[in-house]
Amino acid sequence: MGFVLDTADIPPHERVDAIYAAMMQASVPSYVIHEDPDGEVRTRLEVWDLGGANIFTARSTGLRLLRTPKQARQDAAPVIALSVQRLGDGRHEQLGYRQVVPPGEMLMVDLSAAYDFSWSGEGAAGCIQVPIDQVGLPLDLIRRAAANLRTSPLYGLVANHVSQLVGDAERLSLDPAADALGRASVELLRALLVSAARVEPLSRAVLAETLLTRVRAYVRQHLADPNLRPATIAAAHNVSLRHLYKICAEADFSLEQWIIGERLQGARQELQRPASRSRTIATVARRWGFTDPTHFTRRFRATYGLTPGEWRRISTELPRQHP
To answer: Does the first or last residue of the chain, that is N or C, have fewer Cβ atoms within 10 Å of its Cβ?
Structure first.
């Protein structure tokens, strides 16, 4: 179930109060301070469930969210948010640590504590909010990791994952696999925090537990790479090829077949999009990691019962048959 607020539908004199009420529903009690409350205030907020977590996105004119120590004591809110800045520079201060977060970078906010987060001018950010009890890590470890996220080798992988979540939040939330995606996202968050906190031997144990989840996320981000194969995946995760196959076998999971399936699904969706109709079948195949168009066509027909060209024609004709 989603929650959306768009001030374009609200009279200007009611927007500040509406934004405050929506922020309290979407996150935790805090002061919502607008950069120019007497000027044009524009905000769009969305919250979408993702299993036991949720995705929260915001785009707004200049804004500051100030959570005081008193508010944190009155409403502990044992939740952490892993947020990616999407527009404008975010400025964040919590537990004595200050940082500027440019677009594309990520930060973690402990919603159980006081914090100060803001941007000037038009800005946007999106996060996944996860109850701390789902993460299964001590609060002191989580807070230690928050200041060191960028030092972790998992930082880029998880930042890309969160970016994809917030960029397609509604569709992912409504997908039948949303619960599974939520659990996988929590596993990635857990691995990142342990890696950034540099706690041994807990770090080794958690990284081992989350290896298959991290492999799946890595593969989804590299499907277009024709050189993506088990050996390169194992090297990227600092494990042997034998160990990677062992982990996959224990999960009854065929890595090679899953990669092909993910690539075929991506190509199928692209062939359906009007924007891709100027691209040749061979171009679409290459964009999804298939270097041989004949092999791509054979795999596509075996999976979907149609050639890529037949699927494209049917997808093009369907809107006209069913307006």
So the answer is: C
CB atoms within 10 A of CB 58: 26
Residues 67, 118: one domain?
A: yes
A 10 A CB-CB count for 70 gives 10
Task: Provide the token pair at 217.
Answer: 């996320």
Q: Give the global pTM.
A: 0.71
**218 closest CA partner among 233, 235, 204:** 233
Phi, psi of 57 (to 5 degrees): -125, 145
Residue of 280, 286, 251 lying closest to 266 (CA atoms): 286
Residues 169 and 303 reside in one and the same domain: no
pLDDT per residue of the chain (323 residues) written in tens, 0 to 9 = 578 899 998 999 999 999 999 998 888 889 999 999 999 999 999 999 998 899 999 999 999 999 999 998 877 668 999 999 999 999 999 999 999 999 999 999 999 899 999 999 999 999 999 998 888 888 888 998 998 999 999 999 999 999 999 999 999 999 888 998 999 999 899 889 989 988 765 566 676 777 888 888 888 888 888 889 999 999 988 889 998 998 888 888 889 999 999 999 889 988 988 888 889 999 999 999 999 999 999 999 999 999 999 999 888 775 544 33
* Nearest alpha-carbon partner for 211 in 198, 194, 224: 194
Range of the structural domain that residue 163 is part of: 2-221
Does the residue 239 lie in any domain? no
